[in-house]
Task: inverse folding
């Protein structure tokens, strides 16, 4: 069973930075893609950034000038670097990984890490 463990969340003032890590229990090359999502109170979960098996990255326009996604393949870890944080970035951030298993797309989620940005 795949496990994803997020870390790095916390309380930060507006303008500050946080670095979120997602550690996978298996080799991350097993996944077609990994990514970060977030869910603010009362809102739907939304995509933040993805990184594919081949290393291609995508960050949603709303945060692309402040967030970057990367990976450390040796440690099977995906990183979300968040700079110039704003109060509207406050949310629970979830790590996601997807892989094909016998032709079916399986999606795995971490438990989430809280990010709170104070004004």
Result:
């Amino acid at each position: 069973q795949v496990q994803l463990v997020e870390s790095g969340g916390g309380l930060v003032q507006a303008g500050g930075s946080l670095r979120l890590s997602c550690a996978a229990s298996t080799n991350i090359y097993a996944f077609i893609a990994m990514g970060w999502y977030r869910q603010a109170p009362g809102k739907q979960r939304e995509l933040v950034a993805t990184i594919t098996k081949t290393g291609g990255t995508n960050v949603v326009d709303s945060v692309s000038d402040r967030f970057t996604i990367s990976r450390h393949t040796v440690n099977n870890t995906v990183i979300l670097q968040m700079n110039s944080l704003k109060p509207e970035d406050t949310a629970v951030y979830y790590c996601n990984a997807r892989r094909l298993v016998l032709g079916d797309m399986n999606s795995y989620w971490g438990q989430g890490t809280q990010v709170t940005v104070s004004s």
About this structure: The chain is about 0% helix and 55% strand.
